[in-house]
From TrEMBL:
PANTHER family: RNA-BINDING (RRM/RBD/RNP MOTIFS) FAMILY PROTEIN (PTHR36309), RNA-BINDING (RRM_RBD_RNP MOTIFS) FAMILY PROTEIN (PTHR36309:SF1). InterPro entries: Epigenetic_reg_gene_expr (IPR053316), Nucleotide-bd_a/b_plait_sf (IPR012677), RBD_domain_sf (IPR035979), RRM_dom (IPR000504). It comes from the Eukaryota. GO terms for molecular function: RNA binding. Pfam families: RRM_1. It comes from Ananas comosus. SUPFAM superfamilies: RNA-binding domain, RBD (SSF54928). The keyword Secreted does not apply. This is Uncharacterized protein LOC109722798 isoform X1. Residues 51-134 form the RRM domain. SMART domains: RRM (SM00360). The keyword Cell inner membrane does not apply. Residues 1-18 form the signal peptide.
């Protein structure tokens, strides 16, 4: 009897006891659950992409409320996210991702803004609009079963060193061109803001002059007892 108990004790605490196999099965089940959750999260993200509109060349002075008011004519705006440009030293909006309530509203906005001028701040703005893509989202989840990307420093002896050096030069050139374009865009927006201010002041003067004429006309009609329909 004692011998049997010893054998049972050794079998339970031996490395081949089924508990290790059970732990392996549980770990595999947890991994499958994580993969299933990742697939669901990525599917939900793809649905969000379908409902999102990418707007480029917007005014640097644009705010969230300005963009929302411009797109509310096409449906309900769920979220507005300005995309930062890390290649310039200015923290100004130039493009944005606008999520609509459904894909139908997003397609309606794209069609209208492609064929007609987009009004922003009371003035037409030559924006470019397209359907959003997965690569445009900074907070996009990792796709399931993705391949790993490896990074390494290029050495002068590497056969692709000169090609990478050319890419770096092109990136710096693109940065300089983007900065020059942003400066030009800021100057254009300043000029546009001055024109809008002049138009508002002129319209206010016209409105004030009209009100003065109405008051003068009202006094004259009261003085001479003339019944005039103000409509």
């Amino acid at each position: 009897m004692i011998v049997l108990l010893c054998i049972l004790f050794l079998w339970i605490f031996s490395p081949s006891f089924p508990t290790k196999k059970l732990q392996a099965n549980m770990a595999q089940a947890d991994e499958e659950d994580q993969k299933e959750k990742a697939r669901k999260d990525y599917a939900d993200f793809l649905e969000k992409v379908k409902k999102t509109v990418f707007i480029d060349n917007i005014s640097p002075k644009a705010t969230t409320s300005v963009v929302e008011s411009g797109l509310q004519q096409f449906g309900n705006v769920v979220n507005v996210e300005f995309m930062p440009n890390y290649m310039i030293p200015y923290n100004i909006p130039q493009c944005a991702l606008v999520e609509m309530e459904d894909q139908k509203q997003a397609l309606k906005a794209i069609d209208a803004m492609t064929n007609y001028p987009f009004m922003m701040g009371g003035m037409p703005r030559p924006v470019r609009v397209t359907a959003a893509k997965v690569e445009m989202f900074c907070d996009r989840p990792a796709p399931p079963d993705r391949r790993k990307i490896r990074f390494r420093w290029m050495q002068p002896t590497d056969p692709h060193f000169h090609a990478m050096k050319k890419f770096r030069w092109l990136a710096r050139r693109h940065t300089a061109e983007s900065l020059a374009m942003i400066k030009h865009l800021l100057a254009s927006d300043e000029e546009l803001a001055k024109q809008q201010k002049k138009m508002l002041e002129a319209n206010y003067e016209k409105l004030d002059l009209t009100e003065k004429h109405k008051r003068s006309l009202r006094r004259l009609t009261q003085l001479y007892g003339i019944d005039v329909d103000e409509e």
